[in-house]
Amino acid sequence: MKITSFLLIMLLSFSLCACAASVTPPAQTCKAAADATNGAATSPSGGESPGTYIVVTDQAGRTVHVKSPAEKIVSGYYISTSVCIALGAADRLAGIEAKAASRPIYALAKPELLKLPDVGTAKNFNLEACLALKPDLVILPYSLRDKADIMGEMGVSVILVNPESYTLLTEMINLIGKATGTEERAGKLNTYLENTRAELAGLTGGLTYRPGVYFGGVGSYLTTASKDMYQAALIEMAGGRNAAIGVEGGGWTQVSYEQLLAMNPEIMVIPSEASYNKEDVVSDPQLADLAAVKDNWVYHMPSNFEAWDSPLPSGMLGAKWLLYVLHEDVYPLKTLRNDAAEFYREFYGIEIDAGLIGK
């Protein structure tokens, strides 16, 4: 009897050691099969405190095992950083993207973010700086898939996001909500977005006049939002018509003066973070015959809070601002200011100076 008990103990010890020595992802542990029905798995101890892991599919289609709750998060993308603030997960950020000081919303909502280490930009990501923070979760833009794969092979949980449409934006919010354990908050935010979308559809549904709108690029007004970009969707939601609907491309797309003059948009919009301003546009002699220039209908999107032309939680305010510009009789400035103040109060916990919002 003692011999049998001894053999059972030895067999159990061997099994546990085998689990602890496993090099498979955390969710693929001995208990993973038992937890598969609820999406959770228990991490092998491996010398560290046991933890629960969840399994998510990111926007690159990658299966990622994320510690739950993730206590140290690195966001290498201003859009995911803003989502973390809106979801109440900003206090768990251990590092963020570079140039944080250029994002007014950080100073307004979470000034402590400005003191965090940065991990570079999408064009110049600092892999070593990110790894040095020993994060439980890293959130990166789709363009950094190669870096995500490298870190994934090193056992770091990385999710890639790609919010280049309204549908992908809401999908991203749900993904980050699940990965950070803030699903209820994510659901509330997406409900706001959907309600706002329905509101815009109601306000613009009966319009008979939809002006042609040209959305300039960030780096140059001779680049524009191609038909599949988020900015193009803002134009449609605001009751406009994308003047560059025929321009093909997957991002900001180069156009010539001749193409822009042929489009002859009635309204020209300069994005929040553009490297040029209205004066640059209206003083360009090659644009003197452009309808938007002749009628002085060139507008710079507000930049006091966030880049409202980006697929951010506040992106719907960009659509509302554009609706105000295009159809002030349908959606006046006072309503826009009230709606913006209410949004930031609800999701960012701050009081903004709505008087800064205008054309």
List the helices and strands and how they pair.
Elements: H1 2-20, H2 32-35, E1 40-42, E2 52-57, E3 63-68, E4 73-75, H3 78-86, E5 93-96, H4 104-109, H5 127-132, E6 137-141, H6 145-153, E7 158-161, H7 166-180, H8 183-204, E8 212-215, E9 223-225, H9 230-237, E10 241-242, E11 252-254, H10 257-263, E12 267-270, H11 278-282, H12 291-294, E13 298-300, H13 315-326, H14 333-347
Parallel strand pairs: 4-5, 4-6, 6-7, 8-10, 8-12, 12-13
Antiparallel strand pairs: 1-2, 2-3, 9-11
Helix pairs in contact: 7-8, 8-13, 13-14
Can I get a quick summary?
The chain has 359 residues and is of the alpha/beta class.
Describe the structure.
This protein has 359 residues and is an alpha/beta fold. It has 2 domains: 34-189, Rossmann fold, CATH 3.40.50; 207-356, 3-Layer(aba) Sandwich (Rossmann fold), CATH 3.40.50. It is 39% helix and 14% strand. The protein contains 14 helices and 13 strands. The protein has a 4-stranded parallel β-sheet, with helices on both faces. The protein has a 4-stranded parallel β-sheet with strand order 10-8-12-13. It has a 3-stranded antiparallel β-sheet with strand order 1-2-3. Helix 3 (78-86) links the parallel strand 4 and strand 5 (93-96). The chain is globular. The termini are far apart.
The count of DSSP E runs of length 2 or more, i.e. the number of strands, is: 13
Question: Looking at CATH, which topology of the largest domain would you report?
Answer: Rossmann fold
Total helix count?
A: 14
Quaternary structure classification: single chain
CATH class of the largest domain: Alpha Beta
> What's the number of structural domains?
2
Shape: globular
Q: Structural class, from secondary structure content?
A: alpha/beta
Rg, Å, rounded: 24 Å
Which consecutive residue ranges, at least 5 long each, have pLDDT under 50? 1-50
Which CATH architecture of the largest domain is right? 3-Layer(aba) Sandwich
Order of helices and strands: HHEEEEHEHHEHEHHEEHEEHEHHEHH
Trace the largest sheet across and list its strands: 5-4-6-7
End-to-end gap: 86 Å
| CATH superfamily label of the largest domain | Nitrogenase molybdenum iron protein domain
